[in-house]
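We close this part of the discussion by returning to an individual protein. Part of our work consisted of pairing the sequence of a single chain with a tokenised description of its backbone. What the numbers capture is local backbone geometry rather than side-chain detail. The amino acid sequence and the backbone structure tokens for this protein are reproduced below.
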Amino acid sequence: MSVAPKGRDLDSQTKAAVAARAALDKQAEGVLMIDLRALSNVTDFFVVCTAGSERQISAIKEHIEAALASRGATVWHAEGITPPAPGGSPRDPQWMLMDCGDVVIHVLDQRGREFYRIEDLWGDAPRVPLPPA
């Protein structure tokens, strides 16, 4: 018998709202909750937001993890943010992806947001109003 990972008791929309609110707490911009339930069997929601720096991306990630943990949910896996190459070469877009199973959170710098255009890729998916402060 398999046991569901910790945090599965929190419904996906609430989990996405907690993550979105946490991103806003750290001054993320352009925060979107995208409802994928009718379009994907991989995840229920994307939360997408923009950060102004690598430091802010890390702060948002840590705050989201703490906010979810306080509600009994966990981030299963996180990846992203590779430091710029030394020598002044142009850096790649900075981003962080946080996989919570039924919610995937994308924290990107402005260049990454424009490059990946996640909300355009899922243009048919409804946007969910952000939770109040």
User: Anything to note?
Assistant: The chain has one domain: 12-81+93-127.
